Amino acid sequence: MRIRWTVIALVLSLALNVGLVGLIVYQTIDSAHLQSDQGSTWRYITAERLQLQAMRGQFCGNSSSPTRQELLAWESESRAAERLGEPYDKDGLLWLRDVGVKLDDGDRLVGVCPYMTWQALDNPSADALDNAGASCPLEPLC
Fold it and tell me: Which of 1, 21, 75, 109 could form a disulfide with 65 if both were Cys (CB 3.0 to 4.6 A apart)?
């Protein structure tokens, strides 16, 4: 009888240890994934902020807001060395790499939507993300 309880205790101990090791492995993988996501988010936010700084350096010396053509010309010049995607219109915003630009009816800049900053810090709903042109709080460029 005594040997039987010893075997049961050893099997139960082994099962608990395997479960504990599994939990530790899961937490380690989850932590590494979280750190990777955070690193990616901060890289995107940094790229967005650098682009805003470059735009401010280019356009804030003028008293008038830039036009669509001026923005596209600046983007094509600055993008040539980086080989990134083309600007596109979506949700009422002109997307220049990492920053959405809101234009008025006369194709002049109204404000910018720093998408990654807004998404990471304000945690908007999925509907707001799908309609960034109406939902993203605009910041002035200058």
Answer: 109
Q: Measured in whole angstroms, how far is the alpha carbon of residue 136 from the centre of its chain?
A: 14
Write down the pTM of the prediction.
Answer: 0.64
Number of neighbouring beta carbons within 10 Å of residue 38: 11
Put residue 91 in one of left, alpha, beta given phi > 0 → left and psi -120 to 50 → alpha. Answer: left
The two structure tokens encoding residue 124 = 């908007």
> What's the token pair of residue 79?
């993008």
Our separate counts of H helices and E strands in the chain read: 5, 4
Report the amino acid identity of residue 65. S
Residue pLDDT, tens place only, 4-51? 888 889 999 999 999 999 999 999 999 988 888 888 878 888 888 888
What is the total residue count of the chain?
A: 142
